[in-house]
Amino acid sequence: MQLWLIPAFPLAGFLINGLLGRRASKGFINAVAIGSVLLSFAWVLKTIMGLGDVSSRYVEHYFTWIQSGALQVNFDFAVDRLTVVMLLVVTGVGALIHIYSVGYMGHEGGYYRFFAYLNLFMFFMLTLVLAANYLVLFVGWEGVGLCSYLLIGFYFLRQSATNAGNKAFIVNRIGDFGFSLAIFLVFLNFGTLDFGGVFANVPGKPETLLNTIGLLLLVGACGKSAQIPLYVWLPDAMEGPTPVSALIHAATMVTAGVYMVARSNVIYIHAPVAQEAVALIGLATAFFSATIGLLQNDIKKIFAYSTVSQLGYMFVGAGVGAFSAGIYHLVTHAFFKALLFLGSGSVIHALSGEQDVRRMGGLAKKIPWTFWTMLCAAVAIAGVPPFSGFYSKDMILAAAYQRAPWIYWVGAITAGLTAFYVFRAIFLAFFGAYRGHEHPHESPPVMILPLAALAFLSLAGGFLFDVPQFLERLFPPIEESHDVTLVAVSVAIGLAGIGLAALFYVVKPSLPDSLAASFSGVYKLIYNKYFVDEIYDAAVVKPVVNGSRSLLWKGVDVGLIDAGVNGLGWSARGIGGILRLLQSGSIRSYATWVVFGSVVLMVAMAMAGGVR
Amino acid sequence: MNAVPLSWYLTLSGVLFTLGAAGFLFRRNIITVFMSIELMLNAVNLSFISFSYAFRRVDGQIFTFFVMVVAAAEAAVGLAIILTVFKNRNTLNIDDLNSMKDEYQPAQPEEASETAPVSVP
Amino acid sequence: MDVILFLVFAIIAVLCAINVVVQTHPIASALSLIGVMGSLAVLYLLLGAEFIAAAQVIVYAGAVMVLFVFVIMLLNAGEEVHRGRSFVVQVLGAPLLIALLGLLVYFAQRLFPGAPMVRFGAFRGGTAVAVGRALFTQYLLPFEVTSVLILIAILGAIVLARKELD
Q1: H-helix or E-strand spanning residue A488
Q2: Residues A573, B121: C-beta atoms closer than 8 Å
Q3: What is the C-alpha separation between A118 and A179, in angstroms, rounded?
Q4: Mind listing the pLDDT tens digit for each residue in A155-170?
């Protein structure tokens, strides 16, 4: 099957573009970058066709990576149905975004670097997805974190961009710490890191152990998939170019956490406490970030908080046992969220860089293609039937109701909020009068085509790809709930959200400001993102930095280590200062030393010879 | 009262040696220092001869012979060196022949350089 | 008789040695040194080393010291000036010398308890014949080497002391 070719193509693209791209023509860079992803996608298709219905797990063993004592880790790739879903999403959506980037990044500096990094990201993501054991997954995990850092800080001359890159990497690191601890525990108790080996032996292990592992894995997933408390990097990550936001921070990298939880579903099924935690954190994050998204003015930040919220939904799905529903939502979210971001990019491109929705308006007539495609995505994310978002979100909500009705209600309200803020963005950007000063122009076809493709997928992807049925045998079965009431209620809440947004921003544009004035305290709190960043800064960052500065730098480094090394120097100098008296250049003192030496020698010889 | 204990000769040799060493350490004129060295060599010669008598062998005297030869050669060369030094430095004072630098001044220790800390974003 | 001779010449030797060290003018020191060598020659005779005694007077006192006097006069060395001081010498010098003297005297007294008394004429092995025999048979190699040594010394002295050709 040669699974290794799937990540190898983008890796080759990275190497070629990275090493040669500087002096290559745009056409060459495009060909290499897009070609590698397309080749990867084609190979994925070939693999799927070759494997038939992928009913069992297909493993390819490449080489023994680590052989040390009891630890043996092989570099293996494995494919099962979950992997197939992820591979298609990553390479498919990835290819579309690569094509889009040709138009979007056309006038940017560092063109070759962008595509090189993008290809590198694809390589790591595919490694992550294809991994057959936790350690290879971790390699991909870390690698995508690295690429995220590189791409967020792509405009490295901007301080805010480099800060955002740092923030993303450091916060991710905290998650990775949890993940590492989980891997250690897995190895310690299971003796192997291979998925097959671990999951086969889960049933017999004590529950506390499994809970601990599950919770630690959750920490890692929170870091990568931006859940509470480690979500703070994602909104800042919007400093990167929009295709990066679409690919990495919507469709693929942030879903790695969900994928990892889904992959480890056997552990979670046997660790109820951890699974509960997954659901609760997902739910809290979904609601919390939806509220923040209500009031943001930067169009990309709106969708960033939306991503955090939707990821929360996926975690809820995993947490209530509906793993396939979570993955389903992952797929549909990839479609419509990528589309929302790419569409925003198109809007920003049309307005020559404007990102504030307050300075947009009336763009529906001016950039129709962008408008209609984004509208497709908006209705999908709002959960309007029969579009893709409706299927996946309702499946999650239904399963949540089975577990605990209150989860369903919070989820439903969040769905309403989602619909509201997405349509707020749509109405503010595309309806009404144009409030800015630029000359909007439609994007080139190379950008429109991926938008159109994703729009089609957002609308039809739900009933075209019956993901849960595809994943049926991998996960424990979900009780099919045929309670139409639940469905109706959630759809109604979604439509109500759209209606409310229309009221606020189309019918009565003064309403939001008057409401903001009346509830100014609450407004301020939410508008400032609940001051979470400030709290983190005061509680974590400043103490660490100050502690490092005063204790570790001044105290230990300068005081102890430097002083120690310098002290050695000074004492050497001091001893030298004493010893130099022997070399004074004065013949008489030399003579004295000679006499001294000979006297000593005589005494020594006398003692040795035995004085009689 | 016809015989002198050998130890008297050896003691005399030691006294002469010490006197030569004293001159060597305390005198400042090079030539006087050189002469003190000769005095020391003579003291050693006396000691050799004494032992030659004590062991009833001639070897001690042979040693003395060679010591005298070497002392003569050394005197010749050494005085030539003193002449050269006098030509160059115009002084016969060995303390003035110290061409090493004056009293060593230790360099002031540098202040531990504190670079401005990176601003916390 | 031997004792008196020994004591007289020993005291002369010591006094002259002290004079060597104490005199400020190098000429005075040189003359005192000649005195030391002369008395030592007598003591050698008492110890039965006739040849060496003669060599001492002829070579040492007669040639080496003359060389010293020549150089002193050539350089017009005057009285010694008290300039410069050495910390080490001042501190360590005297104690060291006392220690040295003490050690040497101690060894002298203790080292050879069974030594024979010195009587003039008791040792007849110091004749020129005996010395010559030993020199040319047992110590032939060192003898030849010293001739090379003298050659080197001559060359060195000539090179060092000649005038630079302008």
Answers
A1: helix A484-502
A2: no
A3: 25
A4: 988 899 999 999 999 9
> Quick one: which H or E segment has residue C11?
helix C2-22
pLDDT beyond 50 at B119: no
Shared domain check, C136 and C80: no
Same domain, C1 and C72: yes
Same domain? C6 vs C72:
yes
> Neighbouring chains of C at 3+ CB pairs within 8 Å?
A, B
Q: How far is C130 from chain A (nearest CA, A)?
A: 33
Q: Do B1 and C1 touch (CB under 8 A)?
A: yes
CA A233, CA C68: separation in Å to the nearest integer? 95
Looking at residue B93, what is its pLDDT? Answer: 82
Residue C126 lies in a domain: no
C150, C77: one domain:
no
Cα A490 to Cα B49: distance, rounded to the nearest angstrom: 127
In whole angstroms, what is the distance from residue A188 CA to residue A206 CA? 13
For residue range A345-398, what is the model confidence (pLDDT) as tens digits?
A: 988 888 888 888 888 888 888 888 888 899 989 988 888 888 888 888 888 888
Q: How far is C115 from chain A (nearest CA, A)?
A: 15
Under 8 Å between Cβ of A132 and A198: no
- Shortest Cα distance from B103 to chain A (angstroms)? 9
DSSP string computed for A199-250:
HHHGGGS-HHHHHHHHHHHHHHHHHHTT-TTS-THHHHGGGS-HHHHHIIII
Is residue B24 situated within a structural domain?
yes
- Asked if A589 and C99 come within 8 Å (Cβ–Cβ), the reply is no
CATH of the domain at B44: 1.10.287.3510
Instruction: Give the gap in angstroms from C-alpha A567 to the nearest C-alpha of chain C.
Output: 29
Q: Which residue stretches of A351-483 are H helix?
A: 363-366, 368-382, 388-403, 405-430, 445-464, 467-470
Between CA A285 and CA A310 the distance in angstroms is 9
| pLDDT for position B111 | 47
Q: Give A271-330 pLDDT, tens digit per residue.
A: 889 989 999 999 999 999 998 888 888 889 999 999 999 999 999 988 888 888 888 899
**Could A606 and C107 be called an inter-chain contact, meaning their C-beta atoms sit closer than 8 Å?**
yes
The domain of B83 spans 6-113
Residue B121 maps to a domain: no
Q: Name the closest residue on chain C to residue B32, using Cα atoms.
A: C26
Query: Residues C75, C139: one domain?
Result: no
Q: Do C71 and C7 belong together in one domain?
A: yes
| Structural domains of chain C, count | 2
* Full-model pTM: 0.69
Show which of residues 554-593 on chain A sit within 8 Å of chain C, judged by CB atoms: 581, 584, 586, 588-589, 591-593
**With contact defined as beta carbons under 8 Å apart, do A340 and A410 qualify?**
no
Contact C13 B16 (CB under 8 A): yes
- Going by C-alpha positions, the residue among C105, A396, C161 that lies closest to residue B77 is C161
Q: Which residue of chain C has the CA closest to B28?
A: C80
Inter-helix orientation angle A405-430/A272-293, to 10°: 30
B13 inside domain: yes
Q: Say what the alpha-carbon torsion angle A526, A527, A531, A534 is, to the nearest 10 degrees.
A: 170
Q: Tally A–C CB contacts below 8 A.
A: 41
Q: Which domain holds residue C58?
A: 1-84
ipTM (interface pTM) = 0.90
CA distance B59 to chain A (A): 24
Q: How many whole angstroms separate alpha carbon A160 and alpha carbon A235?
A: 12
Contact by Cβ (8 Å): B6, C117 = yes
The nearest alpha carbon in chain A to B116 belongs to: A549
Q: Which two tokens stand for residue A381?
A: 């994310």
- How far is residue A428 from each of residues A299, A383, A504, measured CA to CA in Å? 10, 20, 10
Q: Is C60–B72 a contact, with Cβ atoms under 8 angstroms apart?
A: yes
ω before A10 within 30° of 0 (cis)?
Answer: no
